[in-house]
Amino acid sequence: KYKMTETAQQIDTKPTKEAPKNKNVEIKAKETKKNIKRKKKKTKKNKKSITNDYLKIISLNINKISNKRLEFEELVRQSKPDIILIQESKRTEVCYKLELEGFTTIEEFATTDRWINGLIIFIRTEIVRTTKILELNPTNIKIAIKRADNTTIEINNIYLPLEPELREDLLSSVEKDMKKNIINIAIGDWNLEKHLMSKNMSE
């Protein structure tokens, strides 16, 4: 947890005597300008480090996160991801609030339905300027993030259900998104193996 504090600066309002114009003052002024330039260079370097050309994304069908917290925290520590997509968290609204240090959490809770088992997105706070939730439902959390270089990226955390109608609706929605003139990422649990098995059994 981070605690943000604001400290007011004391400003001396008393008039000050003008410094005599001599070489020492001019040298100090030049040194100050150099320091400002150095600071600007440092901030540019920091911006570059935040705005990488790639995103490190982890996607996990975790099959209940509450009994895997230590393993999950160790995975995050070792892999240092920018974004984490979780399917089948199996967390309900009565659960404690889930927080991961340094990350923003967006969550769709599980319900009693057999195929609706909970979705979570963790976004590393320092890599984005803004985060906007576009969709929040049991089969998809869709967000748009704006990075430091003003690049917008849409990310879908998907849990594709076995029901044919629900599958078709979600797949057509994702297909439309892919045709947009922006970067669009769709990752998750597509339940392809189960879908093919149930299809073969019905045939």
Task: Please work out how many helical segments DSSP would assign.
Answer: 4
Residue stretches low in confidence (pLDDT < 50, at least 5 long) are 1-17
Q: Summarize the helix and strand pattern as letters.
A: HEHEEEEEEHEH
Task: Give the overall silhouette.
Answer: globular
Number of strands: 8
Global structural class: alpha/beta
Strand sequence of the main sheet, in spatial order?
1-2-4-3
Largest sheet: 4 strands, mixed
* Strand residue percentage: 25-35%
Amount of helix: 25-40%
Distance between the termini: 53 Å
Mean pLDDT: 78
Rounded Rg: 25 Å
Question: Can you lay out the helices and strands and say which pair or pack?
Answer:
Blueprint: H1 23-50, E1 57-61, H2 69-79, E2 83-87, E3 103-108, E4 119-124, E5 128-137, E6 140-147, E7 152-159, H3 164-178, E8 183-189, H4 192-202
Parallel strand pairs: 1-2, 7-8
Antiparallel strand pairs: 2-4, 3-4, 5-6, 6-7
How would you describe the overall organization of this protein?
Mean pLDDT is 78; it is low at 1-17. The chain has helices at 23-50, 69-79, 164-178, 192-202, and strands at residues 57-61, 83-87, 103-108, 119-124, 128-137, 140-147, 152-159, 183-189. The protein is built from four helices and eight strands. The protein is an alpha/beta fold. The protein is globular, with a radius of gyration of 25 Å. It has a four-stranded mixed sheet, with no helix packed on it. The chain has a four-stranded mixed sheet with strand order 5-6-7-8, covered by helices on one side.
